[in-house]
Amino acid sequence: MSGGTPTGANLMRQRHSFGYASSGDDLEDDACSKPPPLSSSSSVPRARARTWVEFMENLLWIASAAFIIYFGDRHSNLIYILWHDNRIKRTSLYLGLVGVLSNGAYFFYMCISTSGVRKYNEKWDAIGDSALPFVSLGLISFCLFTFALWPIWSFLTLPLVFTLFMASMVISPYLIAGPPFRSQDGVLLRTD
């Protein structure tokens, strides 16, 4: 047994180490400050496996949105209503559509630009601060869509628009999925 405390002819093993022999550094502080080693198999972050409950929730949101789009107001589908119905307030509908499209473009840009970030660093603080206006833009878009479609469904507009927004959030990871950008020689391309 090495590294013990001498007691007569035997060595007594130490349970607690109070530092290195050459310095007074604490082993726990040093162990906590080291990043975990990266193996070659973990170079690409893996997505967490989805449970069947999450899968069923996602399926329910998407099926509900498809039902809303297909049946519309029971006389015609939602696309026809948005295109031809005179009861819709067009200005708020178009402003809400611009908000949703700019929100989608921002989220697409963020998915592309942060695909290479694998750990927490200072860059995430700036990203979180820049996302706040777009989150509030999404809330404003929700209110504009509700105001534009209120003459058609009245109180049902709130759950219908919420269901459509939730379905778009559920389906968006499947639309913007893919490996990080790689060049011909296998070197990871930077997008910032």
Overall outline: extended
Low-confidence parts: none
Overall average pLDDT? 74
Oligomer: single chain
* Helicity, as a percent range: 55-70%
Largest sheet entry: 2 strands, antiparallel
Kindly report how far apart the N and C termini lie: 54 Å
DSSP, total strands: 2
Order of helices and strands: EEHHHHHH
Task: Look at the helices and sheets and give the structural class.
Answer: mainly alpha
- Within the largest sheet, what's the order of strands? 1-2
Radius of gyration: 28 Å
How much of the residues is beta strand, in percent?
under 5%
Number of distinct helices = 6
Q: What this model shows, in words?
A:
- This protein is mostly helical.
- The protein contains 6 helices and 2 strands, in the order ββαααααα.
- A two-stranded antiparallel sheet has the order 1-2.
- α2 crosses α6.
- The longest helix is centred in the last third of the chain and has 31 residues, at 123-153.
List its salient traits:
192 residues, mainly alpha, two-stranded antiparallel sheet
Brief description of this entry?
The protein has helices at 27-33, 52-71, 78-84, 90-113, 123-153, 157-175, and strands at residues 5-7, 10-12.
Show the helix and strand layout:
Layout: E1 5-7, E2 10-12, H1 27-33, H2 52-71, H3 78-84, H4 90-113, H5 123-153, H6 157-175
Helix pairs in contact: 2-6, 4-5, 5-6
